[in-house]
């Protein structure tokens, strides 16, 4: 196998290792609200899900009725929204999970967090081979697939020409 062919194969395999992020509607059809099940509702919602860097959380809520604040673990545990990492007051809002580790979200409208409107997710690093149940491919999946297909076609043509 020539050096050009080897390079083409390595590049093709790299391009084909595309990653699929997933979009999750927080709370599914219930959305982002004071949940009927109290504290356990959003904990139960996350139980069968694995979150990866690049996944998107869609918080569906009416502007003025709720908000989403990203907070520290201590603020999450005490429902304290006085020093948030980020605040989103206009709904709906989509938040991309851009790092590994725990993310903590609360609604800081009085009584909402203590009523169970809080969410923690553990985000892992690694590729997602396909969307998981309860999620849908995010907006970049189609673009990634197109780029992979075009790149593979170009590399195949180069392989034919140089080998």
Summary keywords:
163 residues; alpha+beta; four-stranded mixed beta sheet
Residue runs with pLDDT of under 50 for 5 or more positions: 5-19, 136-152
Taking all Cα atoms into account, the compactness measure Rg is 21 Å
Strand content: 15-25%
Overall pLDDT: 78
Supply the helix-strand structural class: alpha+beta
Shape: globular
Walk me through this protein's architecture.
Pfam families: Cu_bind_like. The chain crosses the membrane at residues 143-162. Residues 22-125 form the Phytocyanin domain. Keywords: Copper, Membrane, Metal-binding, Signal, Transmembrane, Transmembrane helix. Residues 1-21 form the signal peptide. By secondary structure, this protein is α+β, with helices and mostly antiparallel strands. The chain contains four helices and nine strands; from the N terminus they run αβαβββαβββββα. It has helices at 3-16, 40-46, 73-78, 141-162, and strands at residues 22-25, 51-52, 56-59, 68-71, 86-88, 93-96, 101-106, 118-124, 136-137. Strands 2-8-7-4-5 form a five-stranded mixed sheet. Helix 1 (3-16) runs antiparallel to helix 4 (141-162). It is globular and about 40 Å long. The N and C termini lie close together (8 Å).
Tell me the layout of helices and strands.
Blueprint: H1 3-16, E1 22-25, H2 40-46, E2 51-52, E3 56-59, E4 68-71, H3 73-78, E5 86-88, E6 93-96, E7 101-106, E8 118-124, E9 136-137, H4 141-162
Parallel strand pairs: 1-3, 2-8
Antiparallel strand pairs: 1-9, 3-6, 4-5, 4-7, 7-8
């Amino acid at each position: 196998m020539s050096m050009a062919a080897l390079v083409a194969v390595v590049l093709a395999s790299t391009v084909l290792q595309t990653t699929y992020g997933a979009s999750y509607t927080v709370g599914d059809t219930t959305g982002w609200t004071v949940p009927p099940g109290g504290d356990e509702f959003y904990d139960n919602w996350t139980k069968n899900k694995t979150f990866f860097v690049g996944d998107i959380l869609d918080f569906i809520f009416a502007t003025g009725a709720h908000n989403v604040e990203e907070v520290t673990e201590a603020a999450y545990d005490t429902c304290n929204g006085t020093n948030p990492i980020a605040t989103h007051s206009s709904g709906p809002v989509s938040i991309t999970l851009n790092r590994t580790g725990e993310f903590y979200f609360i609604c800081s409208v009085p009584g909402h967090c203590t009523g169970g409107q809080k969410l923690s997710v553990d985000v892992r690093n690694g590729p997602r081979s396909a969307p998981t149940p309860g999620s849908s491919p995010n907006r970049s999946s189609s673009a990634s697939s197109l780029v992979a297909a075009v790149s593979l076609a170009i590399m195949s043509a180069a392989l034919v020409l140089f080998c």
